[in-house]
Amino acid sequence: MKAKTPSDSRTTMTDLVLPSETNPLNNLFGGELLARMDRAASIAARRHSRRVCVTASVNHVAFNRAVPLGSVVTVEATISRAFKSSMEIFIDVWIEDRESGNRTKANEAIYTFVAVDETGRPIEVAPVVPETDLEKERFAAALRRKQLSLVLAGKMKPHEATELKALFD
Ligand SMILES: CC(C)(COP(=O)(O)OP(=O)(O)OC[C@H]1O[C@@H](n2cnc3c(N)ncnc32)[C@H](O)[C@@H]1OP(=O)(O)O)[C@@H](O)C(=O)NCCC(=O)NCCS
């Protein structure tokens, strides 16, 4: 299968924060941001694989900054690595300053998607070839994160997670 770069499937979604999407402090509700990130990541996974993709795991979410009502929020999803049927997707969330237009990083997350066939069975996807330094860094660490996620999900025994263990040696 022909390899693809992260920029081949990068997905950017920009939208406003409306009153119905906020918490009592008038900041974006966390679940709403999770849904926006899931949508963008799902499109990136689909563009990479050209298959139906399902969310297998939310590996990491950091709500570092509150996102106030009325903000212009950009969610950017980029594939970092593909394994056999699974794909790790990084999501970076940016807020745009109304006056200057400058973007500030607000949050980030890492999701795992699996490409499936018409019956919902996992199916092989193309490999990823990272290009930039950041893409190469994320690619290199993706196997460790996959092993951690599988161990936490009870799908891999800790002693089998060799790359993850190497981090602590
Ligand atoms: C995700 C799903 C397709 C995996 O199916 P499965 O029968 O467990 O298949 P496998 O064990 O072969 O796993 C398939 C791939 O997913 C990976 N995977 C499964 N669970 C994972 C987890 N928690 N974290 C990271 N990767 C995971 C496996 O490592 C494997 O990767 P690889 O093929 O690249 O090596 C299946 O569990 C499913 O359909 N879940 C529901 C998805 C869904 O509805 N999501 C929306 C949320 S409501």
From TrEMBL:
Record's keyword terms, sorted: Hydrolase
Q: Which PROSITE patterns match?
A: HOTDOG_ACOT
What GO MF terms are annotated? long-chain fatty acyl-CoA hydrolase activity
* Domain HotDog ACOT-type positions: 7-119
Sorted alphabetically, which Gene3D superfamilies does this protein's record hold?
Hotdog Thioesterase
Q: Which GO terms describe its cellular component?
A: cytoplasm
Any Gene Ontology biological process: acyl-CoA metabolic process
Q: Name the domain of life this protein comes from.
A: Bacteria
Per the record, the similarity remark reads:
Belongs to the acyl coenzyme A hydrolase family.
The entry's protein name is Acyl-CoA thioesterase
> What is the source species?
Robertkochia marina
